[in-house]
Amino acid sequence: MYCVMVQNEFSMQENIDLARQFLLDNLVSRGMVVDFAVHQTDKKDGGISSPHFCVMCLIRPVEPEGK
User: Fold this and answer.
1) Which residue has the higher pLDDT, 67 or 35?
2) What is d(CA 48, CA 16) in angstroms, rounded to the nearest whole number?
3) Under DSSP, is residue 44 helix (H, G, I), strand (E, B) or coil?
4) Which stretches of 1-67 are assigned E, i.e. beta strand?
5) Residues 34, 20 contacting (CB under 8 angstroms)
6) pTM of this prediction?
7) How do the residues of the chain divide into helix, strand and coil, expressed in percent and rounded to 5?
C-alpha cells in the first residue's frame, strides 16, 4: 500500500479528482487494477490537516480466465 499527500488548499472533491486522474494516467492505463481511499485527518484539538490517499494495487498479473 502506498500513501500520497494531496493539497490542503483544494477541496476534498478536487483532491479525489486529482487522485483518480493520477491513478488512471499512471497505473490503470498500464493495465493495473487499483483501489484507493482518500482521507482527511481531523483538525480537532489543534491537529494538523494532512489530506492523503492510500493506494492498493495488484502485483501479480490477472489472466484472461481470472486466475
Assistant:
1) 35
2) 19
3) helix
4) 2-5, 34-39, 52-57
5) no
6) 0.71
7) 30, 25, 45
Region 41-49 average pLDDT: 67
Residue 63, phi then psi, degrees to nearest 5: -80, 160
> Which phi and psi angles does 16 have, rounded to 5°?
-65, -45
C-alpha distances out from residue 24 to 11, 19, 29, 32, Å: 20, 9, 6, 9
C-alpha cell of 31? 493495465
Contact 21, 27 (CB under 8 A): no
pLDDT tens string 20-33: 999 999 988 988 88
Do you know the residue count of the chain?
A: 67
Q: Which amino acid is at 3?
A: C
Place of cell 488512471: 24
Q: What are phi and psi of 38, to 5 degrees?
A: -100, 135
Looking at residue 25, what is its pLDDT? 95
